[in-house]
User: Which sequence fits this backbone?
């Protein structure tokens, strides 16, 4: 596959982050930073994004590196809101969206790298502009939108319930 040691480490930590996010989504309907799965997603995503800065097919700083830094910014924003603005309030909307958006964005390089590498010798996609990559990302984007609407509605009902209890 042509991966360096850093690339292998980056990939393994990234897989752990993706699995942790999926577990959190299925168990809690969101990436829950209060739970182990959410913490694994947070730390795994930060490590994966930062190690991406040491990986470059193009040489030097490139748009993929900026993309990785944007993902780090999203998860740090979510973590800050989670830690500094606790409770069932409006900050949960932003926290949930930032984590979900970071998860969706993480799929962009994941899909591109996976489909242009596997199966070995005859990858599904010829390059980043291959239609199979675009179709896969479109499906993931639709899932992201549906999940965001679900999370927004769920958080709105939690926020409304908390307001009525006061």
Assistant:
């Amino acid at each position: 596959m042509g991966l360096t040691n850093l690339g292998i480490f980056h990939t393994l930590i990234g897989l752990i982050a993706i699995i942790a996010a999926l577990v959190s989504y299925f168990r809690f309907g969101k990436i829950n930073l209060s739970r182990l799965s959410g913490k694994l997603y947070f730390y795994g995503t930060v490590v994966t994004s930062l190690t991406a800065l040491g990986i470059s097919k193009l040489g030097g700083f490139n748009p993929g590196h900026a993309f990785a830094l944007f993902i780090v910014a999203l998860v740090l924003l979510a973590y800050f809101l989670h830690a500094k603005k606790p409770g069932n309030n409006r900050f949960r909307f932003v926290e949930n969206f930032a984590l979900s958006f970071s998860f969706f964005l993480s799929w962009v390089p994941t899909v591109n790298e996976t489909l242009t590498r596997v199966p070995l010798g005859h990858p599904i996609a010829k390059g980043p502009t291959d239609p199979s990559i675009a179709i896969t990302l479109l499906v993931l984007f639709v899932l992201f939108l549906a999940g965001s609407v679900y999370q927004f509605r769920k958080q709105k009902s939690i926020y409304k319930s908390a307001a009525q209890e006061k």
